[in-house]
Design goal:
By secondary structure, the protein is of the alpha+beta class. It has helices at about 1-25, 100-105, 110-125, 130-135, 135-150, 170-210, 215-230, 240-255; strands at about 25-30, 30-40, 40-45, 50, 60-65, 70-80, 85-95, 155-165. The protein is rod-shaped. About 15% of the residues are buried.
Length: about 260
């Protein structure tokens, strides 16, 4: 009876030793770290590879250092020009300081997610709708910078923020379409006015040139007649310029005067 009891107790000790040894051995992958506490106090960060932990005396918290991607749910935002829109985004972040990520915040993923939602509303609410639609890159950089500054105390690095979609109601979409159409009409009128101005400047230069050279005016007159005469079905009555008659009379009258 005593032998059976001794054998049973020895087996129990062996099982306990195996369990303690198994719990003392921790293997961390290349992208993992272990935050080790000694009797409740922070001791050190270990990993990757094989790590030995003293059971009961030491506890370890496993932290993943890979970049985490999560969607920010659509947020109701009122822009600076009092337009109500819904905006959602994507946030990329990773843990750079495992000690802070465990000690300074209870659940760093949930905390970063909630902070991203409030930051998205506060930053985008300072801009007008036109900037929200046209200046995505600047807004993404602004949100990333603000969010990263606030999560630095948690050992979190926010590497990128991307606005995915801006949802606008139908009334505002129609108003934007009318605004775009009016802008196109304005540009067309401006281009037409600039063309008229350039044409008038060229005509003024041509008139000044012709005024300085009467022969050029005569040649231009003859060229115009040639162009009109190209249409054989037209009957054209035109006055003979006095300048042209004067030039002809001077040409034939010059010998008699000499």
């Amino acid at each position: 009876m005593m032998i059976g009891y001794t054998f049973g107790f020895s087996s129990l000790l062996i099982v306990l030793a195996v369990l303690l040894t198994a719990s003392a051995i921790k293997i961390f992958r290349e992208y993992e770290r272990g935050v080790v506490f000694m009797l409740g106090r922070f001791w050190k960060v270990k990993g990757p590879g094989l790590v030995l932990i003293i059971p009961i005396v030491q506890q370890v918290v496993r932290i993943d250092l890979r970049t985490v991607v999560f969607d920010v749910p659509p947020q109701d935002i009122i822009t600076r020009d009092n337009v109500s829109v819904k905006v959602n985004a994507v946030v990329y972040f990773r843990v750079v300081d495992p000690e802070k990520a465990v000690i300074q915040v209870a659940k760093y993923f949930e905390a970063t997610s909630q902070l991203a939602q409030t930051t998205l509303r506060s930053v985008l609410g300072k801009h007008e709708l036109d900037a929200l639609l046209a200046e995505r890159e600047q807004l993404n950089a602004g949100i990333q910078k603000t969010l990263d500054a606030q999560t630095d105390a948690w050992g979190i690095k926010v590497s990128m923020v991307e606005i995915k979609h801006v949802d606008i109601n139908e009334t505002m979409i129609r108003a934007i379409a009318r605004q775009a159409e009016a802008e196109r009409e304005r540009r067309a009128k401006v281009i037409h006015a600039e063309g008229e101005l350039q044409a008038s400047e060229k005509l003024l230069q041509a008139a000044q040139t012709l005024a300085r050279q009467p022969q050029a005016m005569q040649l231009r007159y003859l060229q115009t007649l040639t162009t009109i005469a190209a249409d054989k079905n037209s009957t054209i009555v035109f006055p003979l310029p006095v300048d042209l008659l004067t030039a002809v009379l001077d040409r034939f009258g010059a010998p008699r005067q000499s």
